Amino acid sequence: MHGENNSVSVGGTSAVAMFARWLLLLAMASVACSQTVEESAREFLKKFDEEATNLVYQYSLASWAYNTDISQENADKEAEAYAIWSEYFSKMSEESSAYPIDQISDPLIKIQLQKLQDKGSGALSPDKASELRNIMSEMSTIYNTATVCKIDDPTDCQTLEPGNVSCTYITTQIIKRNLRIINHKPCFPIYNNKRVYYEDHGDYWRGDYETIDEPEYSYSRDQVMEDARRIYKEILPLYKELHAYVRAQLQDVYPGHIASDACLPAHLLGDMWGRFWTNLYPLMIPYPEKPDIDVSSEMVAQGWDELRLFKEAEKFFMSVNMSAMFENFWTNSMFIKPEGRDVVCHPTAWDMGNREDFRIKMCTKVNMDDFLTVHHEMGHNQYQMAYRHHTYLLRDGANEGFHEAVGEIMSLSAATPSHLQSLGLLPPDFKQDYETDINFLLKQALTIVATLPFTYMLEEWRWQVFKETIPKDEWMLRWWQMKRELVGVAEAVPRDESYCDPPALFHVSGDYSFIRYFTRTIYQFQFQEALCEAAGHTGPLFKCDITNSTKAGNKLRHMLELGRSMSWTRALEDVAGTTKMDSQPLLHYFSTLMEWLKEENQKNNRVPGWNVNINPTDANAFKVRISLKSAMGDDAYTWNTNEIYLFKSTMAFAMRQYYLKEKGIKMDFMPENINTYNETARISFYFVVMDPTKPDTLIPKADVEAAIWLSRERINGAFLLNDETLEFVGLQATLAPPKEEKFTVWLVVFGVVMGVTVFGGIYLITTGILNRKKKAKKADETVNPYENSDDGEVNKAFEEDIEQTGL
To answer: Residues annotated as binding site for Zn(2+)?
Structure first.
């Protein structure tokens, strides 16, 4: 038995050994196969890098030519270069699928293959890709060539960028109205084509933040939405206090236009989009007697030109051990808007793709705002130059928000009074105290804090549009509902689905993800806190200026050089010591201002927050209720956008009739002058009428009411309704069918007539009897019936006849 056991044991050992050898051989074969796949992938990516670098450079040159000289010829050349690049990328993307990512061990190869196998718009068919490119080119051209002109001087026009910053109530309304020029084109393309690995276009954008890494460094596309919504709630108390303060100041500037608990009018926020409130600062200065920390006028007084802004920014970067700009930067960039041609003025930093050519395109003005923008754009270039040694697919920021944050870090230091004083833009005797600190922080908040809800709302709206949770026929309705709810900003004039406001923003027309500007603000303060600590800064974070700190610069530069070679969560940890987005550094930066705002608002009985139901146009608006079922029962027609158009046309007719007949004025009201809003499924809506000669002006409610009364029958007839089923709320019925009274009207009239007749008959009979008695006494006297008497009685022959009539 023992021997048997030994025999079995020996036999079992032999079987186990054989199985182990088999596993070892299998593993070795697998490793060899893996190494073969990995080596092949490495060679494939090397070839791709060489070819892609050349093709991207050619496409970048064509794109630069179009952006700095908008013409059909340049648009065609750009489209041609893009088609070549797109076709090549799609081809290589297909070929890259021969290298399964799960058989690759080198993380850098994995990252590159993952990015290459994401086809992006290359997933579209050639005809769809061409259509997409044409639409985007057309929308970009519309945006960059669109102008707004003054009503009283149609020749005085401005492009959308640089932004029009007029603070007059009327002019800014005109601008908002004239932006409707963009509505003649598609609102913007909806990319519903299913992409590899992605649910929709928003999911595709959020993929930029996704990391495939160890659990502590992994990050999903859904987490982008979760973090954005979380951080929005965290910064909301600060934003509400700022909002309440700004609203109060605007009430003083524009008395009678803004209620104390209302949303802010979109056209009064300092730029074309209400994105940044920086230009409101002159109206908002908490302590105006203090020296002005906006040094725009001092720059002009000292003779600064546009080039000086760029030279000073370069000096700043070099002081923290960053690179000097390449020589060709100064010859290839566009610093000012050229005469005689249309250009894309929106500031952008360009990596042309060949590792040697970096540029900035900007229609620079000599002012503090552009001074900070130059630092921001040059920050992009510094990032691009830092990672230029990588292969093409790794030459990018850790994520899109990182790229934006780097430029903003530099702007934080460049904006500090201490830095401006070092440049001679503030006087040597300038002293920072509590009041100058509040002035500075408020100016910063108008730029930084004010834009966060705007950014989050825009992208939240687009995410929902892409997921189709917002139907296409409610885009504008939900846009302004969300703008009111999340941002506390209301439309300047009523909007309906014939408008399309989102493409008025460069990033929407250009098809750019926008959440980068939200995440960048959070990263920016996380970076700033870490760099200031490295620089040895003590005291409040808002006073930190890292100029001349090579320790801070080296810490940042190390992160920049990583490019896309590791997960952004690791890159963030490398600088800030955490893998998570954190709003606390931002809230620390503005904590002094937060306390001041709370105290100031409480002292003046201002309640932070806003009532989303207050409409600035309500005083001149009518509510309309329509009851098709009540009027027609089962024969009721369907109420749709065509019916709304008919209503607008009918009201335009009524307004024309009223002005012509009652005022003797020919006014060419058009359907577009009738603005409807707050439409409900039960068929009710509000409308106001705009003056066709002054698009910023509402027609007074009294005139609209008079026009309705004058043409009510025509209005009702257009819809086969009456006053009861087409109701202008607040107006009495004008042509309603006669209602049955308790007593029939003709009986009442007959009774009155009969009463008068009977009374008259009694009176005449009585007077007749008396007259006969008198005549009986004079029967013997001879009387000439034609004799005139002193009593004035004439022609007595007719008197008898009259008496006989009974009248």
So the answer is: 376, 380, 404
Active-site annotation holder among 201, 375, 507, 537: 507
Taking phi over 0 as left and psi of -120 to 50 as alpha, with beta for the rest, 511 belongs to left
Q: Which residues contact 114 (CB under 8 A, 6 or more apart)?
A: 101, 212
Residue 377 falls in the annotated catalytic set = yes
Structural domain tally of the chain? 2
Domain final residue, candidates 698, 728, 758: 728
pTM: 0.75
Residue 581 located in a structural domain: no
Residue 710 belongs to what domain range? 618-728
pLDDT of residue 164: 44
User: Catalytic residue at 243?
Assistant: no
Report the alpha-carbon distance of residue 43 to residue 51 in Å, rounded.
13
Buried-exposed string 81-116: b where 16+ CB fall within 10 A, e elsewhere: bbeebbebbbebbeebeebebeebeeebbbbbbbbb
Angle between helices 516-534 and 400-414 (to 10 degrees): 50
Catalytic member of 377, 408, 491, 529: 377
Distance CA 177, CA 266 (A): 12
Among 401, 363, 437, smallest CA distance to 524 is for: 401
Q: At a CB cut-off of 8 Å and minimum separation 6, what does 539 contact?
A: none
Known binding residues are 209, 376, 380, 404, 516
CA-wise closest residue to 436 among 573, 580, 540: 540
- For the chain, the average pLDDT equals 83
What residues have CB less than 8 Å from 556, skipping those under 6 apart? 320, 406, 409, 527, 531, 575
Q: Which residues are annotated as a binding site for chloride?
A: 209, 516
Domain for residue 686, yes or no? yes
Q: What is the pLDDT of residues 513-553, one digit of tens each?
A: 999 999 999 999 999 999 999 999 999 999 999 999 999 99
Count of Cβ atoms closer than 10 Å to residue 794 Cβ: 12
pLDDT digits (tens, 9 = 90+) for 549-595: 999 999 999 999 999 999 999 999 999 999 999 999 999 999 999 99
Q: Tell me, yes or no, whether 723 and 749 share the same domain.
A: no
Cβ density class 522-549: b for 16+ within 10 Å, e for less: bbbbbbbbbbbbbbebeeebbbbbbbeb
